[in-house]
Amino acid sequence: MLLLYAYKPPLSLFLSSQGYTGEKGVPGSTEVIDFNGKLLEAFQAIQTISVRGPPGLPGSPGGKGEQGLPGPSGLDGEKGPKGDMGETGSIGEKGEKGEMGLSGPGGIDGQKGEMGDSRLEDNLV
């Protein structure tokens, strides 16, 4: 609790060649203001005592504020329709010759051929 008292200077300040000190003054207010919540009550009491006038005219609108932060990104939309087929590309360059492949299976025997000339006579001479 805080108590407020008026300052009282020492008597020796007033005892000089000018004369005697005057009579004691009227005691001041001894109202105690408690700073743990009573101060608000004291201000409210002052407001209720004073007479208020009518409210004033509204003020002019303020200037435009700064731009705010960007919001969160939106949701992905639906998948669109399939696009048209593109043009056929140009034919590429011929590649390198590959390695030799595996041998295939053996062939089927063919038909027997016609009999040839007998040259037996030529061999006897």
From TrEMBL:
InterPro entries per UniProt: Collagen, Collagen_Structural_Proteins
Biased segments, Gly residues type: 59-68, 101-110
UniProt-listed Pfam families: Collagen
Biased composition (Basic and acidic residues): 76-85, 111-125
Chain positions covered by the region annotation Disordered: 50-125
This protein's name: Uncharacterized protein
